[in-house]
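JOB MANIFEST
job_type = single_chain_structure
chain_count = 1
residues = 349
[input]
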Amino acid sequence: MLQIDGSQGEGGGQILRSALSLSLLTKTPFRIANIRAGRKRPGILRQHFVCVEAAQTIGDAEVQGLDMCSTELVVQPRTLTGGAHTFALGGAGSTTRVFHTVLLQLLLGTSIPSTLRFEGGTHNPMAPPVDFLEASFLALLARMLPADTGVDVSFGRHGFYPAGGGAWSATVRPARSLGRLDLLERGAIVEQRALAIVSQIPRRVAERELDALAATLGWDREACRPRSIIDPRGPGNVLLATVQSEHVTEVFVGFGQRGVRSEDVAAGVAAEVTRYLAAGVPVFEHLADQLLLPLALGAGGSFRTVRPTDHARTQAEILEAFLGAKVRFEEEADDVWRVEVSGAGSQVG
């Protein structure tokens, strides 16, 4: 049985989620201790609980020690099963984190399509929103898949922190294998745009965010649009800046918070966009974290990105533990790195 230390690297929930994905795909039992030891509130919280439940459901996994706040689990995977599943977080916990936990198992380890429905948080800090998932991550994953396979997303309603209440669904058409992805250049910029969404918050908040963002980045203000959510479940505000290039689309995200000026929200997003454009790389840090797993499970690949995060380096350790896959980080210039991932697709299933 594989032993995983949840305090290694950045010590967050990604270690548990990645271990669940890899365990079910490779049918490798594991024990994980010190779950989320690097966080202020260690142990399993609601969204991690649902991630484990989701793995139990689709992988018929036997799990020992699952409880709220538990710091140790034993997982024994059995048989993966596709079909229709609903995962309700009952609050604003990240639905996209749960999606990432089960996606590749259903895509590579089953033979029938799956329909997944998620209820909970769709736009909350510390997790990728559905907009990023669809425009950035899934768009690149599609390049690694054979024709007539892949993932289709249907968005229902927004769920902001702390109220939640969002809903969306995804249809997964199994591929059984992933090809290689090399993404070393982003190509010419095709479009730069922004969207500021407000829920139960005055529209002028969105307008101020967009004014500040457009002024800082020199973007066309007409390409920066506000949107007020009708029939909201709770208050919330998100600012999304999109840079669409020939070979990749990146989405940069900022969230409004009580006591934080609109201009400061915009400044945070603008700083990330500026860093990305200055580096000249195709992949920003959050997308880099998410690409490692499918590349390692498939035929491998490479990409250029900014300085790798602790998340990325920790992910590399988990991939080597389960797959023997090697991830090489090479610095090419200031804040420009090349990442090479060896594929281990033959070990899956």
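[summary]
The chain has eight helices and 16 strands.
Residues 111 and 248 are 29 Å apart (CA to CA).
exit_status = 0
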